[in-house]
Amino acid sequence: MLYGRLSEKYSTKTMLYVAITVYTGICIYAYFLKTAIDFWILAMLVGTSQGGIQALSRSYFGKLVPKENSNEFFGFYNIFGKFAAIMGPFLVGLVAQLTGKTNNGVFSVIILFIIGGILLKKVPN
Description:
Layout: H1 2-9, H2 12-31, H3 36-64, H4 70-99, H5 102-108, H6 110-121
Helix pairs in contact: 1-2, 1-3, 2-3, 2-5, 2-6, 4-5
């Protein structure tokens, strides 16, 4: 709800950049994870951001697509969501396997957020 309210005051695109930044910070925090308390803090941070970024990105996408072709565009959106659900864990597993440290795998997800931020920069306001 906080992301929604803030997107009324600031632009939705700005709040998407904030969410990407927050998730980058979450990945950095996860890299240094040591205790169960750290894990719970990490879980709360993800829990407070996941719904906001998902809702904002979906509504922003809905504003961009032509109404007469929205079914096709949202089908495309859904396929990319499924691709991301595979790509993230694959990247984490690959980097963790190559380096021998799970923390490095989680840290590598930052690459996907950077790519997302670059792609978002190319999207019209």
